[in-house]
Amino acid sequence: MKSIYSDSELGNITIRLNSRAKKVIFKLTPEGLLATIPPGCTQKYFEEVLNLLRPKLLDFVTKKNTKTTLDESCSLKTHTFSIRIFRMERENFYFSRKAETLHIACPMNTDFEREEVRNLLVKGIERFLKADAKAYLPQRIRMLAERHKLNFNDVKINSSRGRWGSCSTHRSINLSFYLMLLPSHLIDYVLLHELTHTLEMNHSDRFWRKLDEFTGGQSLALRHELKAFKTHI
């Protein structure tokens, strides 16, 4: 027996009952996420497991479905630089940042289809993304906080793929350096989202009203735009 569970972040999840299953198991298929559940599994328990595994599932789904082509045709642009990948007569890979362009020189015989080549390129790009995020995001969120008379204690940059940001009950804000792949207005939306949590630690109606106030009445439109934006390398 199969059914469909709709999730705002993960999309439609196909649920399949298996009489021999002992626990809830998730698998990514070409059609999307498939959840195998044991007999007696309630919707409440299923949602508890789903929310517990949500960061890993988001990471898994985005890695599989939103990979950017990394070769000489690459047109990826980040908030602070564009990427130019090219081949030349050399024995190793070389990353060089000049103004607003990250130049990546590759050996002539580079096979961009190889996973190890892709991983090398991704790690190199991420190094520059993280450096720029540390320079830009803290000062930007402080400016927005001052503009809207909001307070937070500290801000840290992490490498999360499943969440753009988070805010603790102690008003400590964590931001993913992948935010640097977003356009400016969406970066600001995420920063304002986390700053709003310094007032409301949930997603109540009051939270959305405040965020709407901070975004000039555009919070819903920005939220939908962010969900549709594919940014993972």
What does this structure look like?
The chain is an alpha/beta fold and 233 residues long. It has 2 domains: 2-65, no CATH class; 82-228, 2-Layer Sandwich (Zincin-like). Helices cover 38% and strands 24% of the residues. The chain is built from 5 helices and 10 strands. The strands form 3 sheets. A 4-stranded mixed sheet has the order 1-2-4-3, with helices on one face. A hairpin with a 4-residue loop joins strand 9 and strand 10. The two termini are 37 Å apart.
**What is the helical fraction, as a range of percent?**
25-40%
Radius of gyration: 21 Å
- What's the CATH class label of the largest domain? Alpha Beta
Q: How many strands appear in the DSSP assignment?
A: 10
Strand fraction equals 15-25%
Side by side, the strands of the main sheet go: 1-2-4-3
Element string (H = helix, E = strand): EEEEHEEEHEEEHHH
Sum up the overall morphology in one term.
flat
Q: What does the average pLDDT come to?
A: 91
CATH architecture of the largest domain: 2-Layer Sandwich
Question: Count of DSSP helices?
Answer: 5
CATH topology group of the largest domain:
Zincin-like
Question: Are there runs of 5+ residues with pLDDT below 50, and where?
Answer: none
Report, as a whole number of angstroms, the end-to-end distance: 37 Å
Going by helix content, strand content and strand pairing, the class is alpha/beta
The biggest beta sheet reads: 4 strands, mixed
> What is the CATH H-level superfamily of the largest domain?
Metalloproteases ("zincins"), catalytic domain
* Count of the separate structural domains: 2
